[in-house]
UniProtKB/TrEMBL annotation:
The keyword Glycoprotein does not apply. The chain crosses the membrane at residues 40-60, 67-85. It is a multi-pass membrane protein. It comes from Streptomyces gibsoniae. SMART domains: acidPPc. It comes from the Bacteria. It is found in: Cell membrane. This is Phosphatase PAP2 family protein. Gene3D superfamilies: Phosphatidic acid phosphatase type 2/haloperoxidase (1.20.144.10). Its main location: membrane.
Length: 216
């Protein structure tokens, strides 16, 4: 199937909130000084969520086996949510705004026709991080939530997604990541406890080994 045929078969989501999309992209047109920072942030900003998960792992080293299990589960939960989002994206097959509304002001380059819009992968990662950290550290989760809002807005600002793409990402990413973390906390804690007695102990806890373990 050619790229043109793929674009024709894709769902047109502009009728849902196209006017809101053009309001945001119109704001982008009026704030061209902000275009480059937002374009840089929309991609590189995902690194902030990785940093927050690393911080969660570091703090969990002082909080016991269950907390460490949740910390290790966080990236797994985020990847799981992203994978589910990619499946949904292929099923819905919504054309990107740059193809449905080509006359809108767009900061970001238009991706390939087969790179669909709903849900937003970037926003899914952001929302999933919020949920994954919620079971571990509410403060880090709150910080992630602030950055997730900025990330979601940036996806619309640069013209990559409609607002409903971002909202759909949150509705998908939050429960998938939360339930994945919850399940792993229950099922993987014994495994982490076992690993904590071996060579990986320095990675899993900040506590010094017991006297008997030192002798070994």
């Amino acid at each position: 199937m050619t790229a043109a045929a793929t674009a024709q078969l894709a769902f047109d989501g502009s009728g849902i909130d196209g006017s809101l999309f053009t309001s945001v992209t119109g704001f982008a047109r009026d704030t061209k000084w902000l275009n480059t920072p937002m374009e840089v942030w929309t991609n590189l900003g995902l690194g902030v969520f990785a940093v927050l998960m690393v911080m969660g792992w570091w703090n969990a080293r002082r909080r016991g086996t269950q907390a460490m299990t949740v910390a290790l589960a966080a990236p797994v939960a985020v990847v799981t949510a992203f994978a589910v989002a990619e499946v949904v994206k292929k099923i819905v097959a919504e054309a990107r705004p740059c193809r449905s509304m080509p006359h809108a002001y767009l900061v970001d380059a238009c991706p390939a026709p087969s790179d669909y819009a709903f849900p937003s992968g970037h926003s899914t990662v952001a929302a999933a991080t919020v949920a994954a950290l919620f079971l571990l550290d509410r403060r880090l989760s709150a910080i992630a939530a602030v950055f997730a809002v900025v990330e979601g807005f940036s996806r619309v600002y640069v013209g990559a997604h409609y607002p409903h793409d971002v909202l759909g990402s949150a509705l998908l990413g939050l429960p998938v990541a939360y339930l994945t973390s919850l399940a792993l906390r229950r099922w993987a804690t014994p495994l982490v406890a076992a690993l904590n007695r071996g060579a990986l102990r320095p990675v899993l806890t900040a506590e010094p080994p017991a006297v008997g373990q030192r002798a070994q």
